[in-house]
Amino acid sequence: MQRLHLLKGAFCGLDAFQQQLLIGSAVAAGGILLHMVLKRRQLKSIPLGEGWWGAGKKPLSEDDQIYPFKVQTSDEEIADLHERIDRTRYTDPLEDSCFQYGFNSTYLKTVVSYWRHTFDWKKQVEVLNQYPHFKTKIEGLDVHYVHVQPPHRENQKVVPLMLVHGWPGCFYEFYKMLPLLTENQDGLVFEVICPSIPGYGFSEAPHKQGFDSLAAARIFLTLMERLGFSQFYLQGGDWGSLITTNMAQMKPLCVKGLHLNMFMSTRGIKVMLSLMIGPYLPFLVGFSREDVRRLFPFFEKNVWDILRETGYFHIQATKPDTVGCGVNDSPVGLAAYLLEKFSSWTDLRNRDLVDGGLERKFSLDEVLTIVMIYWTTGSIVSSMRFYKENNPDNRVAAKTGIFVPTGLAAFPGELLHCPKSLAQIRYRNIYSYTFMPRGGHFAAFEEPQLLANDLVQFVKKVEKF
User: Fold this and answer.
1) Is 371 helix (H, G, I), strand (E, B) or coil?
2) Of 100, 363, 373, 461, which is most buried, counting CB atoms within 10 Å of its CB?
3) How confident is the model over 226-253, as pLDDT tens digits?
4) Which residues are catalytic?
5) What is the pLDDT of residues 139-159, one digit of tens each?
6) 431, 458 contact by CB (below 8 A)
7) What's the pTM?
């Protein structure tokens, strides 16, 4: 009270001009402060944009109907595959090299022998067709998706959910998770849409340059709108993580929640200081013991390992069509190129195993089904072009935060670990952050139950279920 009287006395001692100047300065400062607070609270978004990726010129109108689709095959397609496999020319691996040089050709022969003589593609086509498939034209492209509706029951809440894959995966990665999500979870159940990114699998490839994650995000938002969903949840990893993040940035009012199993922070001084201080005083920068275990030694886990695992990235981000010629023409070359990722990206220690640990998490039927989706659609080159089209620098999306409710599942075998304290720089409304007990890059394919459980718990928290 005494301080208040002193301030009042000091103010009264000023002349009229000084009093007006002080009052004006206080009002201006208050206005600036209020503007900053409101700006921070404002739900930020990025422009939706527009595009046309079909062949030739854009027509005056576009067919927006939805058509049923079935995966098909033929005896001729299978015979051609077998003939190409039989003509494969192998190179002997170096002694004791395991998977350190890539997919070991000794084990590759075992996989190819199974593919040639045991694998039943017609049977796997039936597996793919167990769920309803559809196609619809968006921005000049036939977009493929799987749409699974839960069984109708009384007293259950049905929540729309889109699952988005990455590379070298596809919609089939989610097949083991679909029954877990479409079954009643204490009154909560999901209606699931799994699209194929344009240029992947059964979605038509863009005919024009520039198709990036923003274009894919816009197309998938249009798909959800066309299906009649005004609000929905999103889940993604790999490219799916970036695409769903962009969707949440474009239409935050439509995205009720965003769940990711791969996520990164932005670059900046806080990240740099955290990585410098983290190994020694982790509590000062918000790191847990598990963060320290997964992040450090930093250069070994985040520089050297990444350099060893991302040679493909530089090739696909610069000259995808060149390397694509080989893998699009040779089924065995394609299998080696894709399946090496399903080996090492589940656990980097698999590089020290003679069989790459491929069958520790997957059956050969499962991984060869993914290879066959790429092979029969001839989509490997167009899927690789996605890397060239996505330049992360100087994009408004990279500089805009994500404000929708977000759930993050940190799997220990993921290529890069991002602590919650760093993820919060980019994802401003984290509802849940879970250290998953096991699993790697292909979370839905490797650990469907773990991922489904974490997703369900996140949605329940957002829905206050």
Assistant:
1) helix
2) 373
3) 999 999 999 999 999 999 999 999 999 9
4) 238, 387, 441
5) 999 999 999 999 988 889 999
6) yes
7) 0.90
